[in-house]
From TrEMBL:
GO MF term (any one): DNA binding
One of the GO biological process terms: DNA recombination
Organism: Arenivirga flava
The name this protein goes by in its record: RuvB winged helix C-terminal domain-containing protein
Domain RuvB winged helix C-terminal stretches: 30-98
Pfam families: WHD_RuvB (PF05491)
Lineage of source species: Bacteria, Bacillati, Actinomycetota, Actinomycetes, Micrococcales
Protein backbone atom coordinates (compact mmCIF):
# COMPACT_ATOMS: atom_id res chain seq x y z
CA UNK A 1 0.00 0.00 0.00
CA UNK A 2 2.81 2.38 0.85
CA UNK A 3 4.33 1.83 -2.60
CA UNK A 4 0.99 2.52 -4.27
CA UNK A 5 0.57 5.76 -2.30
CA UNK A 6 4.11 6.90 -3.18
CA UNK A 7 3.74 6.16 -6.88
CA UNK A 8 0.32 7.79 -7.09
CA UNK A 9 1.24 10.76 -4.87
CA UNK A 10 -1.57 10.17 -2.42
CA UNK A 11 -2.06 9.49 1.26
CA UNK A 12 -2.77 5.96 2.42
CA UNK A 13 -6.41 6.80 3.14
CA UNK A 14 -9.42 4.55 2.61
CA UNK A 15 -10.06 5.52 -1.04
CA UNK A 16 -6.39 4.91 -1.87
CA UNK A 17 -6.44 1.54 -0.13
CA UNK A 18 -9.55 0.52 -2.06
CA UNK A 19 -7.97 1.66 -5.34
CA UNK A 20 -4.78 -0.29 -4.60
CA UNK A 21 -6.70 -3.45 -3.74
CA UNK A 22 -8.72 -3.12 -6.94
CA UNK A 23 -5.54 -2.57 -8.96
CA UNK A 24 -3.99 -5.71 -7.47
CA UNK A 25 -7.26 -7.65 -7.92
CA UNK A 26 -7.78 -8.33 -4.22
CA UNK A 27 -11.37 -8.87 -3.13
CA UNK A 28 -12.98 -7.49 0.07
CA UNK A 29 -11.87 -10.45 2.21
CA UNK A 30 -8.30 -10.44 0.91
CA UNK A 31 -8.41 -13.11 -1.79
CA UNK A 32 -6.19 -12.43 -4.78
CA UNK A 33 -6.45 -13.92 -8.27
CA UNK A 34 -4.59 -17.13 -7.37
CA UNK A 35 -6.54 -17.65 -4.14
CA UNK A 36 -9.79 -17.34 -6.07
CA UNK A 37 -8.54 -19.60 -8.87
CA UNK A 38 -7.67 -22.35 -6.37
CA UNK A 39 -11.02 -22.14 -4.59
CA UNK A 40 -13.10 -21.83 -7.75
CA UNK A 41 -11.28 -24.80 -9.27
CA UNK A 42 -12.01 -26.93 -6.21
CA UNK A 43 -15.64 -25.78 -6.13
CA UNK A 44 -16.44 -26.10 -9.82
CA UNK A 45 -14.08 -28.63 -11.39
CA UNK A 46 -13.82 -30.98 -8.42
CA UNK A 47 -17.27 -30.45 -6.86
CA UNK A 48 -15.79 -29.16 -3.62
CA UNK A 49 -13.05 -31.75 -3.33
CA UNK A 50 -11.18 -33.59 -2.17
CA UNK A 51 -8.50 -32.99 -4.76
CA UNK A 52 -4.80 -33.77 -4.55
CA UNK A 53 -2.19 -31.02 -4.56
CA UNK A 54 -0.54 -31.98 -7.85
CA UNK A 55 -3.89 -32.26 -9.65
CA UNK A 56 -4.96 -28.90 -8.26
CA UNK A 57 -1.67 -27.30 -9.30
CA UNK A 58 -1.99 -28.52 -12.87
CA UNK A 59 -5.60 -27.34 -12.99
CA UNK A 60 -4.75 -23.77 -12.00
CA UNK A 61 -1.44 -23.65 -13.86
CA UNK A 62 0.71 -23.01 -10.81
CA UNK A 63 3.56 -24.86 -9.13
CA UNK A 64 2.44 -27.24 -6.37
CA UNK A 65 5.05 -25.73 -4.04
CA UNK A 66 3.55 -22.25 -4.52
CA UNK A 67 0.07 -23.48 -3.70
CA UNK A 68 1.28 -25.43 -0.69
CA UNK A 69 3.53 -22.75 0.79
CA UNK A 70 1.83 -19.49 -0.24
CA UNK A 71 -1.85 -20.02 -1.04
CA UNK A 72 -2.88 -22.86 1.28
CA UNK A 73 -1.76 -21.40 4.62
CA UNK A 74 -3.79 -18.23 4.05
CA UNK A 75 -6.89 -20.07 2.83
CA UNK A 76 -6.75 -22.52 5.75
CA UNK A 77 -6.21 -19.66 8.23
CA UNK A 78 -9.29 -17.76 7.00
CA UNK A 79 -11.40 -20.92 6.96
CA UNK A 80 -11.90 -21.30 3.20
CA UNK A 81 -9.89 -24.48 2.65
CA UNK A 82 -9.55 -27.73 4.52
CA UNK A 83 -6.84 -30.36 4.19
CA UNK A 84 -7.78 -34.01 4.54
CA UNK A 85 -5.81 -37.22 3.99
CA UNK A 86 -7.60 -37.47 0.61
CA UNK A 87 -6.84 -33.91 -0.51
CA UNK A 88 -7.96 -30.29 -0.34
CA UNK A 89 -11.63 -29.46 0.21
CA UNK A 90 -13.64 -26.25 0.02
CA UNK A 91 -15.28 -25.29 3.31
CA UNK A 92 -18.78 -23.95 3.91
CA UNK A 93 -17.24 -20.46 4.03
CA UNK A 94 -15.86 -20.90 0.50
CA UNK A 95 -19.23 -22.06 -0.79
CA UNK A 96 -20.88 -19.03 0.81
CA UNK A 97 -18.28 -16.53 -0.42
CA UNK A 98 -18.62 -17.66 -4.03
CA UNK A 99 -22.39 -18.14 -3.82
CA UNK A 100 -22.17 -21.81 -4.76
CA UNK A 101 -24.72 -24.29 -3.44
CA UNK A 102 -23.20 -27.37 -1.88
CA UNK A 103 -24.28 -30.55 -3.67
CA UNK A 104 -26.17 -32.95 -1.48
CA UNK A 105 -24.23 -35.95 -0.30
CA UNK A 106 -25.13 -39.00 -2.32
CA UNK A 107 -24.44 -42.56 -1.32
CA UNK A 108 -24.58 -45.85 -3.14
CA UNK A 109 -28.23 -46.12 -2.11
CA UNK A 110 -29.30 -42.56 -2.99
CA UNK A 111 -29.29 -39.14 -1.32
Amino acid sequence: MRDYALVHGTDADLPAVRAALELYDVDPIGLDRLDRAVLETILHRFEGGPVGLSTLAVSVGEEAETIESVVEPFLVRIGMLGRTPRGRVATNAAYAHFGVARRSEETLFGP
